[in-house]
Amino acid sequence: MLFRQMYDNETSTYSYLLADEKTKEAILIDCVLEQVERDKKLIDELGLNLKYLLETHIHADHITGISKMKEFFPLVKSVVFNNSGNMCADIFSIDNQDFCFGEYKIKVLSTPGHTNSCVSYYIEGMVFTGDTLLIRGCGRTDFQSGSAEKLYNSVTSRLFTLPDSTIIYPAHDYHGMTSSSVYEEKIFNPRLNKGKEEFIKIMANLNLPYPKKIKESVPANILCGNIASKNKNKV
């Protein structure tokens, strides 16, 4: 399987390109609007057939590149979880649904908490956790119907029950780390290696400022990153 991890420096966001090297069918997870040209160039260079654009949640810190990518790849299908509030995805996924690309399949795991509609994507040996589980951290839970209790349950019951050797690929990292493992996060994650009540207290006292782009990102991402439509709706 072909695998690429790509980074947006402004928002510390990772996007992930996976493809079957035999059939050339590919998926792209959490694409970023400002990096669409980069991603298109790589897909074209590798001769891939982009089949799915998968989103882990409605992002608050960047605008998704879905609408722009669909201009370049008209046949690609966008995938968003069914209770996300998204208004334009091609496919509204459900828990445990599989998406196939070539000989591979990737499974939707509902992992709410950071937002009420967060999902992770699992393929044997790898899990793409969005903002649900970060390296030595996790997504905040103080907006977009977030819940510290739900996040704790999602991580402990769905992600920490995966094989210990499973590599964790998050949607963000702010310290130069690229991946972790289920085993490492069970042991070393300073928020999630504690009991539920202590975790809830930690999350209630983060006192973080809101993401700088939240006012533009959330409305745009409900429309698959279609900024033109968002602006039109304001008229």
Can you lay out the helices and strands and say which pair or pack?
Layout: E1 2-8, E2 13-19, E3 25-29, H1 36-45, E4 49-54, H2 66-72, E5 77-81, E6 91-93, E7 98-101, E8 104-110, E9 119-123, E10 126-130, H3 148-159, E11 167-170, E12 180-181, H4 182-188, H5 196-204, H6 214-222, H7 227-234
Write structural notes for this entry.
This protein is an alpha/beta fold and 235 residues long. The chain has one domain (2-209): 4-Layer Sandwich (Metallo-beta-lactamase, Chain A), CATH 3.60.15. The protein is 26% helix and 26% strand. It has 7 helices and 12 strands. The strands form 2 sheets. The chain has a 6-stranded mixed β-sheet with strand order 1-2-3-4-5-6, with no helix packed on it. Helix 3 (148-159) crosses helix 5. Residues 229-235 have low confidence and may be disordered.
Total strand segments: 12
What are the low-pLDDT stretches, counting only 5+ consecutive residues below 50? 229-235
The largest sheet, given as strand count, sense and whether it forms a barrel, is:
6 strands, mixed
In CATH, what is the homologous superfamily? Ribonuclease Z/Hydroxyacylglutathione hydrolase-like
Kindly state the percentage of residues in helix: 25-40%
Please describe the structure with a list of short key phrases separated by commas or semicolons:
235 residues; alpha/beta; Metallo-beta-lactamase, Chain A; six-stranded mixed β-sheet; 26% helix; globular; disordered C terminus
